[in-house]
Amino acid sequence: MGRIAQNLQQIDEEIRSVCSKAGRNPSDIRLIAVSKTKPAALVKEAYDAGQLDIGESYVQEFLEKQGSEKLSGLPLQWHFIGHLQSNKVKDIVGKVSLIHGIDKIGTARELSKRASAKNVAADYLIEINTSGESSKFGLSPDALLSEAPYFFDLPNIRLRGLMTIASPDRNKAREEFRMLAKLLEQLKKISPSPALLTELSMGMSQDYDIAIEEGTTMIRIGTAIFGSRQR
Fold first, then answer.
1. What is the model's pTM?
2. Domain extents for the chain?
3. What percent of the chain is predicted at pLDDT more than 70?
């Protein structure tokens, strides 16, 4: 068994352990293997070990990997987890299964426009700045509920839930994960399609155990699978 396969197996065991203690079903947690800055060959190793959900943060890097000889045609579920600028939306519409980082209505409108032009339905999450840090992207919690109706009205895109990047402090991270879970429940109460709002993308290598305890459905792990990043 190769290193990446071993890492994936270890993470799976840890997820199962945390879920057992938290009273959750491990099958309700989706692991997103974050491969940014890593070559397609390592993504192929992860795929060979059974990992289908792959996360990328840079549009050009994603396009190069998706179209690479090693990965082209594989049934990978690509997730775009980085900050998405409006002028880059056209490049990934119809090519990813889920966009995690929509942080403003203007980007959502562009996504709707491009998805409509291609006659596809694009799934996305709204990124929330739960920590209040100015260095992070995302709508404020208060802005989410006031702006949500504008997101609901857009055609050819489907809001599936919320995403956040928590504070490095684990105690603060728990509070922020709890906040995001509550926001999702509030969002369901005003949504015309509450059944679609099933996803909480929260938790990374340093805090995914807490995120599982607080209700996450998707955890984003890179270094623990692929090793340290190059940049």
1. 0.95
2. 3-226
3. 99
